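Hi everyone,

Forwarding the result from last night's run.
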Amino acid sequence: MKYSIALSLRLFVLFVIIGIWIYYLFYTKGTIRSPLEISIPEAKGRRFGLVLDVRTPEQRSSLGYYPNSVPISLEKLHTEVPLDISNKKAWILVYSNGDEKAQFAAEQLFQQGYPNVRYIRGSYLQLMPGSQ
């Protein structure tokens, strides 16, 4: 009798641990915020020396763009960004369509020595004056 209670307790604990692991694996994916991600209110409150649009030219022309943003492809980050901004300590904002391209670009720029690069996860429209 003692052994069946101990075994039941161990199985219960094992199932709880497995359940927590499954929850973490499937339901928290993508919720851990990157240190380079900036919230919309934070971005609205900061002045950026350069705003980069890493969407495709088709997306930029059909969906519009943030005023004075610079379109750049991910392939040209290494060669064109250093020409646009010589001060590596300047604040840079990167955006796309809410996909991973902005995060990827920000991480690449950070690795190139731009410590103040940030990206937004959502649309640039949220940055526009009067948006909520």
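The helical segments are 2-27, 40-44, 57-63, 77-84, 101-111.

Cheers,
N.
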